[in-house]
User: Which sequence fits this backbone?
């Protein structure tokens, strides 16, 4: 009798633990457990389809992208391989039904990462790549920091408070806010090197608010229509524990 009561109690306890685990998993479905990655897209190419289709291992999922904020995170597999894919129109029997249009490999040592998608400049013969990718380890990009990505053909200079950063073409740099504890206003200006006159020219000047709960990304591009540097910001509010 006592044995049966004990077994029933253990059964109920196991069931409650299982339900609790389910509740924990569904409590915040946008925050998968384990190593994860977020997406940002610097600009949307012609014919861009949103949401994008992402493959990690055998899992296929949809990820909504925005030009102004980071996506919800995806859980990474042990390989760290992340592919952006599209369904082929008429795949042959036994063929992979998906065409890879972008691929990133995240270091397995990174807990949280940011995958930056940029429209590919020129396709190599036979290439299906629509985006080029770069990966930013988020442990090196903290709350209050700025990540500057220069996709323009000229050098960019950033003045943020008493700091000055020079960002070469096709490169990036991080402004380190040094473990910012509270919001602070900082004067900032952006300039670029004019290739014709070889002089630095002002792009914009303003005051920004650095917040410990946010990481900001500034993407510099090139406006072909007006033949000048362009830029836009992306806010990333997820804070690494």
Assistant:
């Amino acid at each position: 009798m006592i044995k049966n009561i004990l077994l029933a109690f253990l059964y109920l306890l196991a069931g409650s633990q299982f339900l609790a685990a389910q509740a924990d998993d569904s409590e915040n479905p946008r925050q998968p457990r384990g190593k994860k990655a977020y997406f940002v897209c610097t600009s949307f190419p012609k014919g861009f389809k949103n949401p994008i289709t992402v493959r990690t291992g055998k899992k296929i999922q949809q990820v909504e992208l925005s030009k102004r904020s980071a996506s919800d995170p995806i859980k990474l597999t042990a390989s760290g391989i992340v592919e952006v894919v599209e369904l082929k129109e008429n795949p042959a029997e036994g063929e992979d039904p998906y065409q890879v249009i972008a691929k990133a490999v995240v270091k397995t040592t990174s807990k949280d990462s940011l995958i930056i998608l940029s429209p590919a400049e020129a396709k190599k013969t036979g290439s299906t790549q629509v985006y080029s990718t770069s990966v930013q380890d988020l442990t090196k990009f903290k709350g209050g920091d700025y990540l500057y990505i220069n996709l323009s053909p000229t050098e960019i200079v950033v003045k943020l408070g008493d700091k000055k950063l020079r960002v070469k073409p096709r490169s990036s740099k991080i402004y380190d806010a040094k473990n910012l504890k509270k919001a602070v206003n900082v004067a900032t200006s952006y300039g670029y090197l004019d290739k014709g006159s070889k002089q630095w020219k002002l792009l914009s000047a303003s005051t920004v608010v650095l917040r410990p709960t946010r990481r900001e990304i500034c993407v510099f591009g090139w406006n072909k229509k007006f033949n000048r540097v362009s830029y836009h910001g992306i806010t990333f509010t997820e804070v690494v524990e």
